[in-house]
Amino acid sequence: MKIERHFGLRIDDELLKKFRYVCEYDGRSANSQILYLIRQYVSNYEKENGKIEQA
Fold first, then answer.
1. Are residues 50 and 44 in contact, defined by beta-carbon separation less than 8 angstroms?
2. Please, what sign has the CA dihedral across residues 55, 10, 1, 28?
3. Are 36 and 28 in contact (CB under 8 A)?
4. What do you get for the CA distance between the two ends of the chain, in Å?
5. Which of 5, 13, 12 shows the shortest CA–CA distance to 31?
């Protein structure tokens, strides 16, 4: 069973507005864009350093 967790983020209001603007342009919600970016970051890390084993 896959568990989803909530993740709080502190962000400057102006930056958040700009981020949402770009997300809308790309056709994604802010949440889905953040998940996309996190997945890309982890994928790039694993390409350079090897697969991360789950604890």
1. no
2. negative
3. yes
4. 16
5. 5
- The whole-angstrom separation of Cα 40 and Cα 17 is 22
Cut 0.85: pTM above it = no
Vertex 10 angle, CA 8 and 12, to 5°: 145
Q: Which amino acid is residue 23, in one-letter code?
A: C
- The Cα–Cα gap between 43 and 55 comes to 17
Q: What is the pLDDT of residues 6-52, one digit of tens each?
A: 999 999 999 999 999 999 999 999 999 999 999 999 999 999 999 99
